[in-house]
Amino acid sequence: MDSVLTTAEHVEHEHASLPQHRHHFETEEQQREVGTFGMWLFLLTEIMFFGGMFFAYLLYRNWYYPAFAVASNQLSVPLGAFNTVMLISSGFCMAVGVWAAEMRRKTLLVIMLILTTVFGLIFIGVKGVEYHEKYENHHIPGFDFSTAAFTNPPVDAKTGKLTEEPISPDMAQHTEIYFFLYFAMTGMHAVHMIIGIVLLFWLIRRANRGDFSSGYVAPIENFGLYWHFVDIVWLFLFPLLYLINRHPLH
Amino acid sequence: MSPSTSHSAPVTHTILSLPDQSTAKMPKRHYLNNEDGLLSWLLTGDHKRIAILYLISITFFFFIGGAFAGLIRLELLTPQPDLVSADTYNKFFTMHGIIMVFLFLVPSVPATLGNFLIPIMLGAKDLAFPKINLLSWYLYVAGGTLTLAALVLGGVDTGWTFTTPLSTHYLNTHVLTAATAIFIAGFSSIFTGLNFIVTVHRMRCPGMTWFRMPLFVWSHYAASLLMVLGTPVLAIALVLVALERIAGIGVFDPAKGGDPLLFQHLFWFYSHPAVYIMILPGMGVISEVISTFSRKRVFGYTAVAFSSVAIALFGFFVWEHHMFIMGVSNYSALVFSLLTMLVAVPSAIKIFNWTFTLQKGSITFETPMLYAFGFMGLFTIGGLTGVFLGSLGMDIHLTETYFIVAHFHFVMVGGMLMAFLAGVHFWWPKMTGRMYPESLSKLAAVTTFIGFNLTFLPQFILGYLGMPRRYHAYPPEFQVLNVLSTAGATVLGIGYMLPLLYLGWSLKYGAIAGDNPWQATGLEWQMQSPPITSNFVETPIMDHEAYDYEWLANKTQKEVTTVG
Q1: Is the bond preceding residue B531 a cis peptide, omega within 30 degrees?
Q2: DSSP secondary structure letters along B481-512
Q3: Residues of B in contact with A143 (CB under 8 A)
Q4: Within 13 Å, how many C-alpha atoms sit on residue A215's CB side?
Q5: pLDDT at residue B71, as a whole number
Q6: Are B409 and B6 within 8 A, CB to CB?
Q7: Structural domain tally of chain A?
Q8: What number is the average pLDDT over the span B273-283?
Q9: How many whole angstroms separate alpha carbon B397 and alpha carbon B407?
């Protein structure tokens, strides 16, 4: 924390060997530390932001447990798992990208950033497919929402049995809250992904220009932190929304 | 008192007289005239210019919010609802609250004085992120403009608390516009806080250890923690309100299975700490002013510094005291009541330490000091009535009455606004290079104090007698006290108009201030007024404690011997 004090010995030194050095910092080291520290703090605000929704999830999951259980059965675990793999791959590529920038390997960095973007876009695409399915099933809260699938579950064609234990209409109403939280949380997560992808396009362009091949890696590192944070949010969302107690009634 | 470095002849006394201002000269180059043109202001990265931009914009919103306060008091002059209808009255107090809380009190001291002073006090050339600093001003302006749009389009009548499900299902006013405005203004506040924390951690000059920082910086650091951790929760609460309103779902609507208390929890998790976001920076101002005008190091520096952090910490665990009458569990209410009383301890530490700073100090009564005395008295009353309200039984009787209105106005207006004015007067010479007219400003300080007490003391009695808040009509027996209150508001209004006029006047005609018109010890007073754009010609090295008046006397004596 107190490393700023070491700037005393830098006062005598030459400043600004890098063109990216900004005048109000004493040293490049200070500039780099400031950037990273700022990003960590920003991520802290993001945790608080998502925290409000996690809190709401916790509350209503306790209140309306059966509704949450049947509603989460509507989500496709294979698609969710596929997306989880996509995000982890994307995060891995980002990590390799940060390493490539530090090693000043321009081509590898550009390739890794492109791969990060591609995996991110696949994630968004799959999310779109999932959202569309909800639209077809009338499971978008507030827009022609229907609880029919929960009060009157369809019959499985092969076994001839109900696909789901029916729940009372009262409780079925509360699936709307589940889907609201599902859309709010994954939607907010997707918004962060999209912002990240826009930033990735900008970083790819700069990396291609060679901006990060001469030892100036702060933007790549800090973006990496952001991208991993978005990954981690999903790693909480996936089990909470898709996996926990999927079939408590069977 | 403190181990000052004695490399020159030791001087045991401190300087008791203010410097002769007739010899003071305006420097040729400073941050105000370094560049010209509107664009040089709108695209500036200089924290001092951004502070001035903020000062202008928050003054604008203060007077709009104040106008609504005037309208409210005017309606309450008579028991009958004769000026406006109930709906319009609801809009008046809502707009008053939204503008005053989010667009004035939250950014008041941090975004203006904090922005201007924190880098200088730490010996840095600028804040850590100058562009984000400018962005935060633009977000503030965007939020402010949207609020004005909501106002012009027909206003909002939810109360500044956006209470659900009233705000989400039952009102047809511009809730969405106002919520978006607050959401955006919230990010302005987050960015300011983030900038301050990073600057304090990473931009301190050599020798500026944590316990050599002025207490102004400590209190801003604590307030910034609250901004960074609390504001995002308000943001998500407002997003949920907006989504619920658009889609008609019931996250907060009990009729559809939602929990209105969930909104209260999320809202007050920010909005109670927000009270400390508003008051902590003001406490920082008071520490500087009290020390300067009693020529003594702040008594118990470490205790005052840590009390700021303690307030920030406790401040996060008392929010439920806004919900005692909302059907929360008795046991949790008990815990929150206890925690609420605990938060009074660090505030009291501050008040007692300032009082001990005054003891045997060489006190003079310049305008900032008068405001600071006003702060100490009024904040103490505001804080102690807060302890009344924190106890469960009293709260059930007094909450939602004028008692609570008086309580938080004593803290926010009597406390924060007094501190803001103390700070603006105190640093005005540094910001503009010119003095304000002393006798007129003393008159303004006294007027404000009298007007304030006349406005809000009767409201304690009204509340105790049972007059509820947020009603535009009341039983005739309450009229005398209400007339007193309205008369006080008029005096208060004059007290606030005066500084606007004479500070504007002083920009052109005020006496030249000179570098250190108050003989204060802070780094900001050891440079020219107004400062140069990069603050320091070379990086300063801090070799003494904060508030070291012997160091200042030695330094001044050395300068005199060198020059003479």
Answers
A1: no
A2: HHHHHHHHHHHHHHHHHHHHHHHHHHHHHSPB
A3: 247
A4: 7
A5: 96
A6: no
A7: 1
A8: 95
A9: 14
ipTM: 0.90
How much is the average pLDDT of B372-384? Answer: 96
Residue A31 lies in a domain: yes
What whole-number distance in Å separates Cα of residue B173 and Cα of residue B203?
A: 46
Q: What's the CATH number where A115 sits?
A: 1.20.120.80
Q: Is residue B5 part of a domain?
A: no
Nearest residue on chain A to B211, judged by CA atoms?
A2
What mean pLDDT value characterizes chain B?
93
B3 in a structural domain: no
Residue B249: per-residue pLDDT = 83
Q: Is the pLDDT of residue B402 over 50?
A: yes
CB contact at 8 A, B142 and B187: no
Which 104-163 residues of chain B touch chain A by CB within 8 A? 124-126, 128-130, 132
| pLDDT at position A19 | 67
Is B51 domain-assigned?
Answer: yes
Cβ B281 vs Cβ B222: under 8 Å: no
- Residue B241 in any domain: the answer is yes
A51 occurs within a structural domain:
yes
Structure tokens at B489: 């508001």
pLDDT band at B12, cuts 50/70/90?
A: low
Taking CB atoms and an 8 Å cutoff, what residues of chain B touch A33? 202
Residue B256 has a pLDDT of 85
Amino acid type, B453: N
Domains identified in chain B, total number: 1
Q: Do A38 and B194 touch (CB under 8 A)?
A: yes
> What would the two tokens of residue B337 be?
């009541």
CATH number assigned to the domain comprising residue B250: 1.20.210.10
pLDDT of B531 above 70: yes
Handedness of CA A96, A98, A101, A107 (dihedral sign): positive
Q: For residue B143, what are its two tokens?
A: 């939020």
CB-CB neighbours of B302 under 10 Å: 10
Domain span including residue A114: 27-243
CA distance A241 to chain B (A): 17
Asked if the structure places residue A184 within a domain, the reply is yes
pLDDT higher at B135 or A213: B135
A186, pLDDT greater than 90: yes
Subunit contact B129:A23, Cβ cutoff 8 A: no
CB of B378 closer than 8 Å to CB of B415: yes
Contact A41 B205 (CB under 8 A): no
What pLDDT is attached to residue A15? 44
Is A19 a member of any domain? no
Q: Which of A44, A48, A59, A140 would best serve as a mutation to test chain B binding (most B beta carbons within 10 A)?
A: A48
Q: What pLDDT score does A247 carry?
A: 62
Question: What's the whole-number mean pLDDT along residues B459-484?
Answer: 95
Q: What is the pLDDT of residue A158?
A: 79
d(CA B284, CA B172): 42
Least trusted range by pLDDT, from B6-20, B287-301, B313-327, B378-392: B6-20
| Interchain proximity B235–A24, CB inside 8 Å | no
In this complex, is the C-beta atom of B173 within 8 Å of any C-beta atom belonging to chain A? no
Nearest beta carbon to residue A52 from set B125, B237, B259: B237
CA A191 to CA A200: how far, in whole Å?
Answer: 14
Whole domain around residue B364: which residue ranges?
Answer: 21-563
> Does the CA dihedral B50-B438-B25-B216 come out positive or negative?
negative
Which SS3 state, helix, strand or coil, does residue B401 take? strand
The least confident of A20-24, B9-13, B227-231, B312-316 is B9-13
Distance CA A143, CA B248 (A): 9
Q: Are B524 and B530 in contact (CB under 8 A)?
A: no
Using an 8 Å CB-CB cutoff, list chain A residues near B232: 45-46, 48-49, 51-52
Distance (Å, rounded) from C-alpha A119 to C-alpha B158?
A: 44
**Tens of pLDDT along B287-329?**
999 999 999 999 999 999 999 999 999 999 999 999 999 989 9
